[in-house]
Amino acid sequence: MTANRGYIPPTRRPDALGVHSVDHFALVVPDLAVAKDFYLKFGLDVREDGEELSLYTFGHPHRWGRVVEGPAKKLHHVSFGAFEDDMPRFAEHLQRLGVERIDAPTGFGSNGIWFRDPDGSLREIRAAVKSSTNHKAEFSVPICGDGARGTVSREEAPTVRPRRFSHMLTYVGSAQKAITFYSDVLGLKLADAAGDDVAFMHAIHGSDHHILAFATGGGPGLHHSSWDMGGIEQIGLGAMHMADSGYARGWGLGRHVLGSNYFHYIRDPWGSYAEYSADIDYIPVTQDWEAKTWAPHNAFYLWGPTPPDDFVTNYEAA
Ligand SMILES: [Fe+2]
User: Fold this and answer.
1) pLDDT tens for each residue of 16-42
2) Cα(88) to centroid(ligand 1), Å
3) What helix, strand, coil percent values describe the chain, rounded to 5?
4) N or C: which end of the chain has fewer CB within 10 A?
5) Reported pTM
6) How far is the CA of 265 from the centre of ligand 1 (A)?
């Protein structure tokens, strides 16, 4: 059989209304210099833009994160990307659902649609290039042949860097309410849930198994942002570099059940995490993924060390 070399897989589900990406997240932190050090060491391309930091990954044009200074660490907002011609439909859709449209917050002016989620958290839908990936991320395992050295010395260890943002886990007042709201309003779909209090949402136009996840946690907050790496070796090297740089706390190496990704979480200076992730499941635009609800003990991680006692503690709510 001859392969159809001209075939370009679709990157959009026709007619269905839904955001395609987490366009970016914005954090408030008490000291920008501390944030800059953490994210630089983590391997991001951190740029100073006036009074704020912009988080990029090297070699990728998209701005994944914004960090501004304020009294205490807080997830300021999450902005979702939508196809430009869907924006009028989203405006009508939110109005029909009775979701109040609000002004853009000071310092974050844009022509997107701003509103609040059930916890009162700021959210935006904006016209944007689809920054979520259109295919399963490449994953490699170096194999050493006969008669060769498989690795280099510690001193020769390469610098590793995330390739792109993958997803974020946010604390919410109620994961069940969040599933309903983000499905109805933003068109995200449930990929999997662990009990009543943890849920993973994917985008309908092709995305990682989750671009946004919820954990019931006494109110809003950031649990972690997650960044795609090329393999387990890169995760290990990144975590080692972070430990050598003073960021030894975290959790990993391990493998999740829901999403199947290999992980190592690095604890950030504010008690939340940045995750090195590799080989996360991918839900193509052409597939209707069957969501399941799993028993939490059976779904948290397939293997890995015991998580820290406070791994799921919402320090923003405290
Ligand atoms: Fe994650």
Assistant:
1) 999 999 999 999 999 999 999 999 999
2) 32
3) 20, 35, 50
4) N
5) 0.95
6) 8
